[in-house]
């Protein structure tokens, strides 16, 4: 029986600064397994520890992660440069089940860094654009600099994605929508019986987005959320990522709303 | 199945037979005023002629007539199979890695029904119901041999009858012992158990021996007064997530985590890097952790369960509700350790009862 904590060596091939505290790390990893949109990896910085980070692109040549500077491990990760090595293990967890919804319309909703989890879905859909109906992508951020992957928007729109943006607080030069992401639904025409919703973002954002999608007539089983809890081991034994009757690392992070309805939105759970 | 009536003075040979087969024998001993599972060299070290008094936040040992008239102290088999500290992997700065798996061949002697059940539950967590098999747990678990003892003197804190794990344990161990007044009635349930039992002097049990065993069993069962009503419990508790009772319990709960430490099934751990002084190597360790710690649930350094009420709710619901969703059975074996070792005497069976009746 192999040790589930063994890491692969990952060469940091490229670092892209998204904003002052968010960077994309593009990693060269030999023999990295197949992965699906919504899955995550454990990234290890020598002597500092591991962090769970979702895979933020479907590209296979390099494994992409978008990392926000939030703690000790990411602080050390931000000190590393192109040419340095980190450890990686994965992929882990469930994925957004896009393959089950061919022929359907798709509403993707992302808040802040949550777009990192949704971007692989966007790329997956663009690759197979003809087998899906309309695809909406609703993106919200605190302010314009919190909107990630701005360089990709043109490509997404050309790929048939209906992209809608909003910010909580505008800044100089922002002429787009101001307000929370659920307000963007007024620009979206849905056929609820053939529409699936997929989202990632702060829990409160997902709570209101779910309510909105239910109100618009989507069924509980066709709404998917990416949950966040502290995944320390990623192999279902450390217990830290427990979310009620689930382990986010192995039963999630992607859940249908139907699966988590009794526990979703309960405070401090 | 082989069974034998073995004279009391013959039992010491069992430990020797296990040692001859290369087992590291772990058995209950009296230490620091409590019963503890420890490695033993011979039968003379095993706790004998001892009884326990256990109540909410109370534990004392005293002399007793029966050899095995006690139940268990604060530690359990998890201390051996999922130790408080386990080395996971060694890593060098160039990210080369080495796994040093600790292998053991444990024979657990004097295991009660509740603790036997805890082995099955930990197996589910680390191996059987986990797609990522845990090599470290497996290396310690694979060769385990169990000698169970049927409980004839349950503690007042026991509620194994509610959880279906005791006080008698037939068929779930390699060997099972019932202590009669004058002898031991020993049964073997596995091939290796039979081989070992062959090596013990004894005779064929008579009807009166079975009769005595039945009486002891009935007395033990009727002596267990604490109850948890399992019927529909996972769902019923899920409906109590917003109960005001959690705040009531939190007024007494110190969030010390004693209950989780003594629980034979609580498995949560923290992963830490232990770095050599010169930085040339980092040893990744897992150390027991408890959901009562505020930082346990922290995401990006911000605790998710900051109130004690939410942490107690997490613990109780994990045992009696969430676990069933995660693994298909309860996470509680009814051993009652959490009741005995709670410094303020919170009784999980009482709290479940209160939640169901008026929570």
Written account of the structure:
The complex is a heterodimer of chains A (269) and B (359). In chain A, a hairpin with a 2-residue loop joins β13 and β14. Chain A has helices at residues 72-77, 115-127, 153-158, 203-215, 257-260, and strands at residues 8-19, 22-28, 40-45, 49-54, 63-68, 85-92, 105-111, 135-141, 161-167, 177-178, 195-200, 223-226, 242-243, 246-247, 254-256. Chain A is α/β, with parallel strands linked by helices and 269 residues long. The model of chain A has no long low-confidence stretch (mean pLDDT 97). The mean pLDDT of chain B is 97. In chain B, the strands form three sheets. Chain B has a seven-stranded mixed beta sheet with strand order 1-11-10-9-8-2-3, with helices on both faces. Chain B has a four-stranded antiparallel beta sheet with strand order 7-6-13-12, with no helix packed on it. Chain B has a two-stranded antiparallel sheet with strand order 4-5. Chain B has two domains: 2-223, no CATH class; 233-358, no CATH class. By secondary structure, chain B is of the alpha+beta class. In chain B, α9 (245-252) crosses α11 (308-327). Chains A and B meet through β6 and β14 of A and β6, α4, β12, β13 and α11 of B.
Write the layout of secondary structure elements.
The complex is a heterodimer of chains A (269) and B (359).
Chain A (H helix, E strand, L loop, with lengths): L7 E12 L2 E7 L11 E6 L3 E6 L8 E6 L3 H6 L7 E8 L12 E7 L3 H13 L7 E7 L11 H6 L2 E7 L9 E2 L16 E6 L2 H13 L7 E4 L15 E2 L2 E2 L6 E3 H4 L9
Parallel strand pairs in A: 7-8, 7-11, 8-9, 9-10, 11-12
Antiparallel strand pairs in A: 1-2, 1-6, 2-5, 3-4, 3-6, 12-15, 13-14
Chain B lengths: L1 E6 L4 H9 L3 E8 L2 E6 L10 E6 L2 E6 L14 H4 L3 E7 L5 E2 L7 E6 L1 H16 L6 H7 L3 E5 L10 H4 L11 E5 L3 E6 L2 H8 L8 H17 L9 H6 L6 H8 L5 H5 L6 E7 L6 E7 L19 H20 L9 H4 L7 H11 L1
Parallel strand pairs in B: 2-8, 8-9, 9-10
Antiparallel strand pairs in B: 1-11, 2-3, 4-5, 6-7, 6-13, 10-11, 12-13
Helix pairs in contact in B: 9-11
């Amino acid at each position: 029986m192999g040790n589930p904590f063994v890491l692969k060596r990952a060469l940091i091939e490229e670092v892209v600064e998204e904003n002052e505290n968010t960077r994309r790390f593009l990693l060269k990893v030999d023999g990295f397994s197949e992965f699906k949109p919504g899955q995550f990896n454990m990234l290890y910085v020598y002597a500092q520890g591991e962090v769970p980070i979702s895979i933020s692109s479907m590209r296979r040549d390099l494994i992409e992660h978008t990392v926000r500077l939030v703690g000790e491990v990411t602080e050390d990760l931000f000190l590393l440069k192109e040419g340095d090595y980190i450890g990686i293990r994965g992929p882990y967890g469930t994925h957004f089940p896009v393959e089950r919804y061919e022929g359907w319309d798709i509403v993707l909703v992302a808040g802040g860094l949550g777009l990192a989890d949704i971007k692989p879905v966007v790329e997956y859909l663009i690759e197979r654009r003809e087998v899906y109906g309309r695809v909406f992508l609703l993106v919200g951020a605190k302010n314009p600099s919190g909107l990630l992957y701005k360089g990709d928007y043109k490509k997404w729109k050309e790929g048939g994605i209906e992209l809608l943006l909003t910010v909580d607080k505008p800044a100089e030069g922002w002429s787009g929508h101001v307000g929370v992401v659920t307000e963007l639904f007024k620009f979206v025409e849905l056929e609820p019986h053939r529409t699936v919703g997929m989202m990632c973002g702060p829990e409160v954002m997902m709570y209101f987005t779910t309510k909105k999608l239910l109100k618009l007539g989507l069924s509980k089983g066709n709404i998917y959320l990416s949950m966040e809890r502290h995944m320390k081991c990623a192999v279902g034994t450390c217990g830290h990522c427990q979310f009620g009757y689930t382990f986010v690392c192995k039963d999630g992070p992607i859940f249908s709303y139907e699966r988590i309805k009794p526990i979703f939105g309960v405070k401090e759970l | 199945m082989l069974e034998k009536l073995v004279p009391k003075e013959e039992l010491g040979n069992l430990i020797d037979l296990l040692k001859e087969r290369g087992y590291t024998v772990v058995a209950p001993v009296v230490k620091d005023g409590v019963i503890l599972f420890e490695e033993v060299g011979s039968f003379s070290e095993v706790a004998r002629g001892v009884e326990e008094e256990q109540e909410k936040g109370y534990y004392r040992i005293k002399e007793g007539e029966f050899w095995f008239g006690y139940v268990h102290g604060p530690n359990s088999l998890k201390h051996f199979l999922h130790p408080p500290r386990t080395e996971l992997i060694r890593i060098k700065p160039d990210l080369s890695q080495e796994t040093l798996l600790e292998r053991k061949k444990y024979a657990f002697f004097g295991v009660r029904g509740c603790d036997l059940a805890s082995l099955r539950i930990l197996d589910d967590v680390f191996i059987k119901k986990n797609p990522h098999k845990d090599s470290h747990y497996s290396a310690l678990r694979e060769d385990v041999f169990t000698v169970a003892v049927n409980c004839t003197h349950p503690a007042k804190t026991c509620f194994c009858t509610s959880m279906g794990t005791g006080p008698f344990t037939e068929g779930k161990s390699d060997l099972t012992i019932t202590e009669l007044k004058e002898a031991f009635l020993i049964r073997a349930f596995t091939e290796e158990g039979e081989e070992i039992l062959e090596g013990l002097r004894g005779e064929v049990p008579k009807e009166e021996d079975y009769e005595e065993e039945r009486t002891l069993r009935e007395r033990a069962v009727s002596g267990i007064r604490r109850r948890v009503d399992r019927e529909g419990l996972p769902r019923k508790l899920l409906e109590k997530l917003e109960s005001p009772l959690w705040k009531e319990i939190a007024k007494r709960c110190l969030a010390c985590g004693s209950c989780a430490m003594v629980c034979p099934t609580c498995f949560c751990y923290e992963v830490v890097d232990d770095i050599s002084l010169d930085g040339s190597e980092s040893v990744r360790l897992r150390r027991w952790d408890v959901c009562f710690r505020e930082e346990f649930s922290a995401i990006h350094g911000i605790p998710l369960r900051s109130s004690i009420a939410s942490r107690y709710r997490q613990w109780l619901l994990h045992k009696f509700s969430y676990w069933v969703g995660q693994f298909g059975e309860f996470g509680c074996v009814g051993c009652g350790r959490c009741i005995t070792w709670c410094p303020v005497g919170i009784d999980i069976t009482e709290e479940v009862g209160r939640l169901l009746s008026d929570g």
